[in-house]
Amino acid sequence: MLRLGFLASLIFAPGVPGAVHSPHASSFTFRRDGVLGTSLDLTFVTASSAEARRAETVALAEIERIRRLTSTWDSTSEVSRLQLAGRLDVASPELRDMLNLYQVWGERTGGAYTAQIGALTSLWKEAEARGELPATEAITALVGALRQPAWQIDQRRGAIEMLRPARLDLNSLGKGYIVDHAMKAVREQVPGVIGGLINIGGDIRTWGEAPAGAATWHIGVTDPRRNADNAPSLTELRVGTAAVSTSGGYARGYTIAGRHYSHIIDARTGIPVNRVLGVTVIAADNATANALATSLSVLDPVEGLALVRSVPGAECLIVTAAGETIRSSGFAAYELPGREHAAPTPTRAVQATMAVDVTPANWNRHRPYLAAWVSDTAGKHLRTLALWGDRPKYLRELSKWYGLDTSSPELVNAVARATRPAGKYTIEWDGLDQANTPVAAGAYLFWLEVAFENGAHSLRSVVVSCESAPATGIMSATDAFAGAQIDCGFKK
């Protein structure tokens, strides 16, 4: 399946009969990399391209404003100054609000969810660098400290005092909180916008009217068992004004002695979680959806379902490490009938993975157009693996690909997935040609073409042997991308 767009594809699915749309409104899409350390997709429904550009400006400004308050990665942020000085006499309402929310969710999860996870994260990062697991004694000491309050808020005066040194990490709930505020800012400051979607790294907020031809926003849910950026969605959702967040350890984590450990750590034990592969939550706001998605990744599924039931309007989908798919009672009502895909069944065929690095040289830049495809060694086109971009007129700048394949891709509005680093994408090939016929073992030519609107354009190809023995091909860096690696073999 082709998917047009970097995780938020914004040429839309057919409308539902009876839907009412503004006759003069159009949808406008903006895509960036390096926002909050991941990707950003914005879509606004409005009659004016100028209003859409203004909405992009407003959203970016609000994202940056709250990032400067709450980013623990920025030594000059308000939360960093709090940790350094131990006290803020007048803290921003946003920082106080975020810390209050962490306290609430920490209590509701029995300590499984906390903003104090930073020390444990650092411990596991150091263990990865050493190539050996953290010492049990070090984990036990940190877990014991997490059970104690780390800050105190004077709600009347607006002051925050650290009760002891603690390494805060506000990324989990913080990203959702920022998404909510960015949408709120657009709604308040750009009245010409009548609908919108904000997607930061797979955490999605939708509001108002969907693009013309669709009654609702269509959101794909990544299958944690097959999470390449061009893989079929596990299921597809129809939502109106809502928030959708996904959590899982498949996109980030630690590799120690050849074993992958999730970046999500149970604050009660200090150990990365392993019982849940992925969680998707629908809720009224993204801060709540984020907190629930991370909490359900840590809690036992039975506990997680009980927590979701306690939140009005919240629904969830859990994929366990054993491969079981668990839904809350109302989740199926949001799913498109017949769109759930079964877990992949191993077959005897060529299998390939392309790891693409388009890490931005300058953060918060517009993302390029990209085409990835495979041909035989003579150059005959076999299958387009991915086509990313949103404006058809600029697809022609992918000049090599455009002369080979202009078929219409299957599209969704956005994809809910676990957050992964900016610019890092994975593309898979299941060994089928464009007619869905399995190809034979042998050597194949892999292509990657990347272009910016009226800017840099680069084309690379490499021959990789897809036989019984695994083989790797490397594409060197160009002006338009930082390189790619193709791993291929023939699964018997």
Structure notes:
The structure is a single chain. The protein is α+β, with helices and mostly antiparallel strands. It is built from 10 helices and 27 strands. It has helices spanning 49-70, 78-85, 93-108, 118-130, 136-146, 171-189, 286-298, 301-309, 392-395, 399-402, and strands at 26-35, 38-46, 87-88, 151-154, 159-162, 193-200, 203-208, 217-221, 235-239, 242-248, 253-256, 259-262, 265-266, 271-272, 276-283, 315-320, 325-327, 349-357, 365-366, 369-375, 381-388, 414-416, 424-429, 442-451, 457-466, 471-475, 483-491. The strands form 7 sheets. It has a 9-stranded antiparallel sheet, covered by helices on one side. The protein has a 4-stranded antiparallel sheet with strand order 23-18-27-26, with no helix packed on it. A hairpin with a 7-residue loop joins strand 26 (471-475) and strand 27. Helix 1 (49-70) runs antiparallel to helix 6, helix 6 (171-189) packs antiparallel against helix 7 (286-298) and helix 7 (286-298) packs antiparallel against helix 8 (301-309). It is globular, with a radius of gyration of 23 Å. The two termini are 23 Å apart. Mean pLDDT is 85; it is low at 1-20 and 408-412.
Q: What's the helix count?
A: 10
Strand content: 25-35%
Which runs of at least 5 residues are low in confidence (pLDDT < 50)?
Answer: 1-20, 408-412
Mean pLDDT across residues:
85
Oligomer: single chain
Radius of gyration (CA) equals 23 Å
